[in-house]
Every structure is written in C-alpha cells, then in structure tokens.
Amino acid sequence: MDLQLSPDALAFRDEVRAFIAERLPADIRARLRRGHAARKQDTVAWQRILHERGWAAPHWPAEYGGAGLGTTERLVLFEELQRAGAPLPLPFNIAMLGPVLLRFGTEAQKRFFLPQLARLDLWFCQGFSEPDAGSDLASLRTRAVRDGDHYVVDGQKIWTTSAHHADWIFALVRTEQTARKQDGISFLLIDMKTPGVSVRPIVSIDGQHHLNEVFFDSARVPVANLVGEEGRGWDCAKYLLASERTNIANVGLCWERLDAARELAADIRQGDTRLLDDPKLGAELAELGAEIRALELTNWRFLLDPEIGRKNPGFASVLKLKGSELMQALTTLIARLAGPAGLERHDAEGDAAQQHPLAATAPRYFFYRATTIYGGSSEVQKDILAKTLLG
C-alpha cells in the first residue's frame, strides 16, 4: 500500500486522478508540462473547475465554498495536482488569506470574501515584504493612520508576487509605534483600485514579470477592512505563515519534474542509444528519486502528526530547506539535459503546443534559483534548525 494510505485515502486518490484526467484542459497541461508557469487565465479557469467539486478550497467549511476535507485528503489532492501538471488553487486566496479570515474575520468579511476567494472572483496578493526589511518582517514601516471611518495608508511593499494581476492585497501596516516591534501592526484588506495605490513591475532573472513593487500614497482604506484587532495583526501574520507551511515541501512538483527529466532523457539520443540508458544518469535519477521519496515520507509525518511540529519547532524548516534544494537540483538537471536547445527564447504567453519542448527550460532554471530565498531563505531555515534542534 502506497505510503500506507488507508483504503479510503487510496480511493480518494483514484477519484482525484480520474477527475484531473477528465477535466484538466489539454492546453494548460501542455504549458505546465513544458515547464511554463501557469498564466492568470490558466489558474482562474482551473480553480473554477475545481470549485465546482469543492476542491478549490478543500479544507474550508462547505458553507464558504469548501469541502471540509481532512489533512490526508488535502495532501493527496495537492500532490496529485502537482504531479499531473495542473495549477494549484491560488495560494494567496486559499492557503493564506482564507484561513486567516476563518479564524479572525468578522462574519460580514467571511460572507463577502470567502466565496469569492474560493471561486477566484477576486485575486489577492500578499503585501508583507518591504525594502530594507530583509527577513525581519516585523520591521515594516508602511503606516496606517486612523481618520474617522478610514485608515490613511502610506508606504511601500516589494517582491509582491502577481500584484499586477491582483484585485486586492492583504497587507501588514503599522498603526502604532510600540517598544516591541511585533506590536502595533494591523492586518488590512486593500482594494488595488483605491486611489493612491500603484504598482511597478520587477522583471526577475528569468526574464519574466512575476514580482512587483506596490506603493501607497495616502490611500484611504475603510476601517471595516481591518481583520482582527487593531494592533494585533502579528497574530494574523503568524497564523497565515503557519497555514502557508502546509505545502512548503512541494513533493508533488518534485515528482513531476523528475518525470519530466526522465521523459526528456528518453527522447535524447546519443547515436543509437537513449540518454536515459546512460548508467551515470540512471544513478543520478535514482538518487533524486530516493531523496524525493524521503522528503515525501517526512512531509506526511509532519502533516499527519501535529505532535511532531509541536515537539520539534524546526521540523517545517527541514521540509522547506530540502524541498527548495531538490527543486533546484531537478531544474539544474533538466537544463543540463536540454543543453543549448534550452536557451531558446520563447513567448511566455504563446501557445505552448507550438513551441519547442525545451523552450521554458532556461527561464524555469533561473526562476527556481529563488526557491532558497522566498518563504524564508535557506540561511534563515538553518538558523532555526540550529536553535531548535541543536540548542
């Protein structure tokens, strides 16, 4: 029995696989299988298909558009989506903001936002990082000053993924200057169409536009958009980051990239011999497979046994660290296999079916250089491990 899953979990996995095979649009599958990032329209179309089944927000209560699935089913679902080359539901909506609203939001906020988050009628981005703040999130300087029924927001966010696509942003802002920097922070929901909000693109090393700077210039935000208590936004942030860590290992994506590497090696020939039959490459693929399997088992242990995380606070850092390193190793291998053909320039918005199969190799290689930085850099994860596991 695979991973010692229960009969019910195995049946659910079969159900998910059949659903993906039947409903995932072929053009989306082709784009992601070639290594392209999902476009906005890909994510929206697929999330709405999943929403019909309640699987866009599988762990949410049914009354807000979810399916009330347990941890095992949720993990099975997300791993199968990644292995199939399907876009995941927008994490800013589903894995980050949704759980925060369920825990800290007012009933009016839940009723208004959660169904739209699940169906992706609203696209949210995350306004946490700021210039000069590094990994010290609590040192943020964006200010929100109360003025009647509004906050007046001034400041800047940076490295804001998909802000150019977003309808709204959830942001940490400083509403009070306190001795302890984690205090006096508030969690605001801000409409990106608000006067005074502007977005400037950041083109990253892969040549693509994923990231942005977001500026707030006397932007007036209704007090009704405050989540939780004023000055207690750090509680929301910690809860959000804990929710975000449920899929940090990206096991399914690692398996999908390993499969892609094997397929590529099978298609490349050296004379009359497939590159896949080279014993040195075979040993490298086997080693990567063994490491992914170990990561998979560790991820299951962490997510299915809450006591592990409580007793070992650094356990999540192990998953982040190893998952990041494996994704870099896999994309490096694919770039190496592709050789000069992988350097071909391509139209990121074009028809993937009409492109060379290796067209996305170099951009994906460069994109995944960032895996050891975002979500907590490897250096930060090692510091956490040193403090929590080594004392």
TrEMBL record:
Family annotation (Pfam families): Acyl-CoA_dh_1, Acyl-CoA_dh_M, Acyl-CoA_dh_N
Acyl-CoA dehydrogenase/oxidase C-terminal domain residues: 231-389
Residues passing through the membrane, by range: none
GO cellular component, one term: plasma membrane
InterPro entries tied to this protein: Acyl-CoA_Oxase/DH_mid-dom, Acyl-CoA_Oxase/DH_mid-dom_sf, AcylCo_DH-like_C, AcylCo_DH/oxidase_C, AcylCoA_DH/ox_N, AcylCoA_DH/ox_N_sf, AcylCoA_DH/oxidase_NM_dom_sf, Mycobact_Acyl-CoA_DH
Annotated Acyl-CoA dehydrogenase/oxidase N-terminal domain residues: 7-119
GO molecular function: flavin adenine dinucleotide binding; oxidoreductase activity, acting on the CH-CH group of donors
UniProt key word Transmembrane: no
Keywords tagged on the record: FAD, Flavoprotein, Oxidoreductase
Cited Gene3D superfamilies: Acyl-CoA dehydrogenase/oxidase, N-terminal domain, Butyryl-CoA Dehydrogenase, subunit A, domain 2, Butyryl-CoA Dehydrogenase, subunit A, domain 3
Cofactor(s) of this protein: FAD
Residue span(s) of domain Acyl-CoA oxidase/dehydrogenase middle: 125-217
Similarity remark: Belongs to the acyl-CoA dehydrogenase family.
Name this polypeptide is given: Acyl-CoA dehydrogenase
Organism name: Variovorax paradoxus
Higher taxonomy: Bacteria, Pseudomonadati, Pseudomonadota, Betaproteobacteria, Burkholderiales
